[in-house]
Amino acid sequence: MKLLSRIYIGLIFLLLYAPILVVVLFSFNASNSLSSFTGFSLKWYEELFRDGAALSALKNSLILAVASSLLATVLGTLAAFSIARAKSRRYQRAMEGVSNIPMMNPDIVTGVSMMLLFVGVGAMLKLSNTLGFWTMLVAHTTFNLPYVILSVLPRFRQMDKSLTEAALDLGCTPAQTFFRIELPYVMPGIASGLMMSFALSLDDFIISHFVSSPDFKTLPLYIYNQTAHEVKFSMYALCTLLIVVILALLIAVNIAGAKDEGGRRKKKQTGVTK
Q1: Which of 24, 29, 44, 198 sits in a 20 to 30 Å window from 86, CA-based?
Q2: What pLDDT is recorded for position 272?
C-alpha cells in the first residue's frame, strides 16, 4: 500500500513539474531543437539580454509588481486592522466575505469587469486613452488585497489585547500603540502578504490582458505575443528566470513563516518554564 501511494505521489509530481523541467533544460540547449539536447550553452540568455523589447517588458513588470504589492500591503494591513478591531462579529464576517470576493472570482470575470469599468469611466470623463499603467496598477492592487488581508488578519487576531491596553494605560496614543506594538507583531504576516502580492502581480496574465494598452506591456503579455509566431528559444530562458524568481519568493515566504512559528514556540516554552 505504501509503495502504491509513493508511486501515485511521484506521478503527480511528475505531471506538475515535468513541463517546468523541460523549459529549464532546453533554455540551456546549444541548438534550437526540442527533440535533442546537443550541449550546454548560455547563448539563449545572451540573446534574451540583447532583446530590448523583452527587457522593456521586464522593467514594466517589475515596476508594476513593486508598486501594486506595496500599495496592496498598506491598504490590506489597514483593512485587516479595522476588521480585527471591529466590535460586531457580523460586521467582521461581512467584511471578510466581501474582501474574499476578488480572490474567489475567476480571473477572466475580474478582468472583463475591470475593463468595462475603466472604459466606462474613461468615456464619462471623455478620455481618449483609458487603459495603461494606471488601470493595471488599480487592477493588480485589487486582486492582491485579499491575499494581504488573509496573511495579516490572523496575526492581529492572535495578538494579546492586553499588550495594547497596557501601552494605552502607560500613556501611548492609539497611533503610537499601533506603530510600536501592533505593527511589529504583525510584521511577519505583512512580509508574507507583500511577497505573495509581488509574485502574483509578476505572474498575472489574464487580468493584465484585459486592462493593458499597447504602450505598456508586461512580461507575461510579451511572452504571449511571442507565442503567436514562432517561439524564440530566448523565451525559454525568460521563463526560466521567471521560475527562479517565483521559487525564490516562495522559499522566502516559507522561511519567514517557519521562523515566525519557531519564535512563537520559544515564547510559549519560555512562558511555561517561568
Answers
A1: 198
A2: 47
